[in-house]
Amino acid sequence: MRGVSIFGATGSIGESGFDLLMRAGGPDAFRTVALSGGRNIARLAEMARALRAEIAVTAYDDALPDLRDALAGSGVQVAAGGAALIEAASRPADWTLSAIVGAAGLPPGLAALERGGTLALANKESLVCAAPLVKAAARRGGATILPVDSEHSAIFQSLGSDNIENVEAVTITASGGAFRDWPLEQLALATVEQASTHPNWAMGQRITIDSASMFNKAMEVIEAHEFFDLPPRRIKVLVHPESIVHAMVTHNDGGTIAHLGPPDMRHAIGYALNWPDRRPLPLPLLDLAKIGSLTFREPCETRWPALALARGVMAAGGAAGAVFNAAKEQALDDFIARRLKFTEMAGRVAHALDRLSGQPGFGESPSSLSDVLDWDAAARKEAACPI
Ligand code: NDP
């Protein structure tokens, strides 16, 4: 029986992964090693019971008593905190879904890679912050990394066995998020509630707001650069409000292969779960006649300054990715806490990059997890709103 683990099981991606495991036979088809969550203890316990997990881990020490109570008599072990997440990720499993949100997903992801097996990577922050560490851990553990972000899964599927050398460009599409058609002068007034509503995808709040600001797309451009070893000039972004074409790969002979699918993350997660095979998934098939037309346009960089910041990050290399992500997470925290306007987030990130780019070692890739965490902490400090 295949051993599986989900880190971030109680989130939007984690729920989709859980749904796929349950529909594919649940505990009769998979040996669930570890499930992790954060504050949603009731749901974590419910999932752990349903899949008969070996261990359930909450990221927060103070939530352990509740988790222990919720799983009393179930036979599921319980644990809490960062070290417990790493220990759980080190337990032998064939397939691990990395679905924690933010840089917090990096340590368990690295531990899973060191241990080997397949890492289905939704946590884009891992590659943005620490691609060399992620790749080195995969090499040491003999692990396979499969993309779960829908655009990267689409590139992966469109590439097939083609040589990346023959790829002229990849195009990642973006829905444009909540404010794609808002008048520019109104963006400064955008509220957290408005930014947390996505026109096409049902996702966690943080990535939904990042979609409205295009920080999510900026992260994905960096992720594609790292995942596929593509030079930045070969990565393009197009706004595609229908969210049906997830990515396109243009070859040097002029042929472009596009990947289409309904906006449902279970496709990309299911593909990674069944890879290298394809199996039926509980998803509606695409009906293009019903959709009628697919439209594309260039992104406006005045509306979405995050895209230009991403190009700067790729050009700088070194610690820029870790700084960019942490500064973005801080700016997002401040927007959600109503300390910052929607349009001020990019400025805070630019400020942190600018301040830290002069620091010794900025141009060198972080050589350890603690190096990444140091840059992460420094970036959060620089990006934080003065109180
Ligand atoms: P959610 O916010 O919905 O879920 C996040 C998960 O991580 C939850 O299980 C949450 O626990 C847990 N968590 C939160 N903070 C911490 C922490 N500090 N330490 C450990 N665990 C924590 O996120 P999404 O599912 O939307 O996104 C997860 C990842 O997947 C992100 O990296 C995102 O960019 C990426 N992704 C998401 C897509 C989507 O459609 N949602 C699409 C493509 C990529 P709890 O809720 O119990 O507190």
Structural features, described:
With 387 residues, the protein is of the alpha/beta class. It has three domains: 146 residues, NAD(P)-binding Rossmann-like Domain (Rossmann fold, 3-Layer(aba) Sandwich); 140 residues, no CATH class; 67 residues, Rna Polymerase Sigma Factor, Chain: A (Orthogonal Bundle). Helix content is 44%, strand content 15%. It contains 16 helices and eleven strands. The site of NADPH dihydro-nicotinamide-adenine-dinucleotide phosphate has 28 residues, from helix 1, helix 6 and helix 9.
CATH top level assignment of the largest domain: Alpha Beta
Ligands in the structure? NADPH dihydro-nicotinamide-adenine-dinucleotide phosphate
Question: What's the overall geometry?
Answer: globular
Low-confidence stretches: none
CATH architecture of the largest domain: 3-Layer(aba) Sandwich
The chain-level mean pLDDT equals 97
Order of helices and strands: EHEHEHEHEHEHEHEHHHEEEHHHHHH
Number of H- or I-type helical stretches:
16
Helix-strand makeup class: alpha/beta
Strand runs, count = 11
| CATH topology descriptor of the largest domain | Rossmann fold
CATH superfamily of the largest domain: NAD(P)-binding Rossmann-like Domain
Spatial order of the strands forming the largest sheet? 4-3-2-1-5-6-7
| Helix-residue proportion | 40-55%
Report the radius of gyration as a whole number of Å: 20 Å
Question: Short summary of the structure?
Answer:
The protein is an alpha/beta fold and 387 residues long. The chain contains 16 helices and 11 strands. The protein folds into 3 domains: 2-147, NAD(P)-binding Rossmann-like Domain (Rossmann fold, 3-Layer(aba) Sandwich), CATH 3.40.50; 152-291, no CATH class; 317-383, Orthogonal Bundle (Rna Polymerase Sigma Factor, Chain: A).
